[in-house]
Amino acid sequence: MVSLTFYGGVNEIGGNKILLEDKDARIFLDFGQSFDFGEDYFYEYLSPRTANGLEVYFEFGLVPRVPKLYSRKMLQFTDLKYEKPDIDAIFISHSHSDHINHLQFVDEGIPVYMGHGTHHLYEAYHKMYASFYDIGEHSDIRLFKSGDSIKVKHLLIEPVHVEHSVPGAYGFIIHTSSGAIVYTGDFRLHGPQSWMTQEFIKKAAATSPRALICEGTRIGSEVEHNYTEQEVQDKASQLIKGAGGLVFADFSMSNVDRFLSFYNATVAAGRKLVIDTRFAYILRCLREKVPALPDVLSDKNLLVYFRICKSCTFSEKDYYPWERDFLPKMVTYRELSKSGSKYVMHMGFNRLMELVYLQPKGADFIWSMSEHFLEGEDNEDTKRVLENWLRHFGINLHRVHSSGHASPADIAGAIKAINPELLLPIHTNSPSAFKELHGKVVLPEKEKTIGI
Questions:
Q1: Which of 372, 399, 426 delimits the end of a domain?
Q2: Angle 9-133-79 (CA atoms, 0-180°, nearest 5)?
Q3: Degrees (nearest 5) of the Cα angle 87, 70, 92?
Q4: How far is CA 190 from its chain centroid?
Q5: CB 424 within 8 A of CB 211
Q6: What is the pLDDT of residues 386-398, one digit of tens each?
Q7: Element spanning 116, H or E
Q8: What's the CA gap between 66 and 64, in Å, rounded?
Q9: What does the alpha-carbon distance between residue 137 and residue 108 come to, in Å, rounded to a whole number?
Q10: pLDDT tens-place string over residues 268-315
């Protein structure tokens, strides 16, 4: 009998950790960190000692106590004895932290499977933010692409690309002794690459699956209008064309579709898009896998912002070696503050300090990040700080966003098309709402095993 044990992603958005067992085969689907991980016990400087591994996380039940899974180093100060791992593989659906971040705890010898794009993104971010973007040491990372068939003992796993807010996202079809088990990962159907998700749905349906593990980020939420990526581009274009000064835009550096939306909108308005050195590095890394992206060094519509630091002279020696490659495309606060109406500048929340140097007049700020970031009590402090900065500099705030997750209607359509015998909701705050979408729904409980 096949069994599924959900160690994360239950009654929450993110933190997916799903153990699939079939005969002597044991694999995990994702190994992520919850968005609210540790917030009930840790605050600012009150945090676990990194050197003590899983000690404090076990104390508060923040990481599941699963034998034969974690590394010797992580168990050193715990009462869980280290044993040789019996997990055959961990399959990662995409690079977001809520699906990958707790890989840092697992035994380095367990094979980790991920897409080429996910591995590419991880290496780029780790180079720039080594202490914040770290999945630990792994001696056996194996890369896949859509269309591959991966054998793990008697299991056959098919990764199939899906559209999400980050490139290199996958769903999985796992062929077991009891039939096919389908896992959607995170997906959407309203962007320019929706054909990938449609292909996943078609392949999943063809297997007549015993069970579908389906994400439901937006299930239970009220959706007045499911904004498409094209609508984001159109709205951004309208705002940029109507702006009289410098336009700032905040969106994820790893969201290729959103970058292209703002790039196209900027070019249509006759402006140049300014990105910082980190964004330029990410873009160059991604271009190898996404050739539709422009080349930073040769594209006339792209410039690279260099912050003032060290010598205050914008000297080459002020910057990291990987930043120096982009010096030929340098633009500084001096040019932007003088001729703001010529540019659109990517401006992340943690880069707001640059406004002190830019001193923008009559500027606009387009917020195009996750719909959750400026909503709810948990984000009140961030929202307050952002609004204070914008108010201080007289900058107008606009919100233009298209979700990286499928709408309730699209989720319902996907479930109907795949037509599984059993539906298991995950990555959602409203699992019970799935009962309206399928005749046989089983609601996972954390660390409880479900037989298939």
A1: 399
A2: 65
A3: 60
A4: 17
A5: yes
A6: 999 999 999 999 9
A7: helix 116-128
A8: 6
A9: 6
A10: 999 999 999 999 999 999 998 889 999 999 999 999 999 999 888 999
Tell me which residue of 23, 18, 16 sits closest to 2, measured CA to CA. 23
Q: What are the tens digits of pLDDT across the range 189-237?
A: 999 999 999 999 999 999 999 999 999 999 987 766 889 999 999 999 9
Written as one letter, the residue type at 26 is: R
Of the CA atoms within 13 Å of residue 407, those in its CB half-sphere come to: 15
CATH for 277: 3.40.50.10710
Tell me: do 210 and 235 sit in the same domain.
no
CA–CA separation, 407 and 410 (whole Å) = 5
Query: Quick one: tokens of 418?
Result: 């795949």
- Would you say 368 and 249 are in contact if contact means Cβ atoms under 8 Å apart? yes
Q: What mean pLDDT, rounded, does the chain reach? A: 94
**Of 377, 422, 446, nearest to 11 (Cα)?**
446
Block residue for tokens 């410039």: 303
Q: Give Rg (Cα) of the chain.
A: 23
Q: Identify the CA nearest to 198 among candidates 157, 146, 150, 156.
A: 146
Same domain, 217 and 239: no
| Residue numbers of the domain that contains 368 | 229-399
| Domain boundary residue, one of 365, 380, 399 | 399
Q: Given the structure tokens 């190898």, which residue do they identify?
A: 288
Q: Show the DSSP H helices in 213-317 as ranges.
A: 229-242, 256-268, 277-287
Give the residue among 295, 300, 231, 293 at the shortest CA–CA distance from 265.
231
